[in-house]
Amino acid sequence: MKLVESSPLTRKLSAFVALSEADLETLARFHHRRRTFPAGHTMMHEGQSNASAFILAEGWACSYKMLPDGGRQVINFQIPGDFLGLRSILFRSSDLSLEALTDIEASEVFAPDILGAFARAPRLATAVLWASSRDEAMMVEHLVNLGRRSAVERMAHLLLELGARLNLVGVGDRTGFSCPLTQYHLADALGLSAIHVNRVLRQLREDGMVTFQKGRVVFNDLARLQSLAGFDTAYMDHEGPLLR
């Protein structure tokens, strides 16, 4: 039970709902099928039927869609505590692909696991609905990023969002976070070329706002970076449990 209480998923869901002992016992059932995947492994293909979902415990992954010309649009980056492919067990087929960006450890869950948990623990179901709604809110911000923000604003917003998400699950803090993403990953997420990503990161570094080097993001001037990106954490709803 202690492992469940300290898990990234529990920390994340506890930001919305104060979980009871019964909720934690139900969450523990999600972790019975633990699996590991190496970096670069495709965990799910777009169009795949009868796919499993996963709860990410360690490492990073990304969800993406491939274009006919071979280009790739990264939809989101997944970090510890995130559900991977939750829609895939509710839809007839997966609407995107999932790739492990690092070596990862994840718990495999099937539709009966999720539906049974909702029946046994309605407060937990509310927390999972909150997490899913927060993910949708992030997708709205990503759409604004691609449609209306400049390249430097996009980068600043993405790094701040990743920092806030990691901080919530105890992996990062306000000074920065370890980050395995390459310039190609960032390019696929932000609709830029890798060369443009390099220029943007250099500009942010030279302006004294953020440094991304040797696998670590360091916020040198958090207030200025937030102002540049127009970053407001309200859409992430991290202010503490609403249900107790």
In short:
The protein has 244 residues and is α+β, with helices and mostly antiparallel strands.
Please give the structural blueprint.
Layout: H1 2-5, H2 8-13, H3 21-29, E1 34-37, E2 42-44, E3 53-58, E4 61-66, E5 72-78, E6 83-84, E7 97-100, E8 104-109, H4 111-120, H5 122-148, H6 151-168, E9 176-178, H7 183-190, H8 194-206, E10 210-213, E11 216-219, H9 222-229
Antiparallel strand pairs: 1-8, 2-7, 3-6, 3-8, 4-5, 4-7, 9-11, 10-11
Q: How would you describe this protein?
A:
This protein is an alpha+beta fold and 244 residues long. It folds into two domains: 2-131, Jelly Rolls (Sandwich), CATH 2.60.120.10; 133-236, Arc Repressor Mutant, subunit A. Helix content is 42%, strand content 20%. It contains nine helices and eleven strands. It has helices spanning 2-5, 8-13, 21-29, 111-120, 122-148, 151-168, 183-190, 194-206, 222-229; strands at residues 34-37, 42-44, 53-58, 61-66, 72-78, 83-84, 97-100, 104-109, 176-178, 210-213, 216-219. The strands form three sheets. Strands 1-8-3-6 form a four-stranded antiparallel β-sheet. A four-stranded antiparallel β-sheet has the order 2-7-4-5. A three-stranded antiparallel β-sheet has the order 9-11-10. A hairpin with a 5-residue loop joins β4 and β5 (72-78). α4 crosses α5 (122-148). The longest helix is centred in the middle third of the chain and has 27 residues, at 122-148. It is globular. The mean pLDDT is 91.
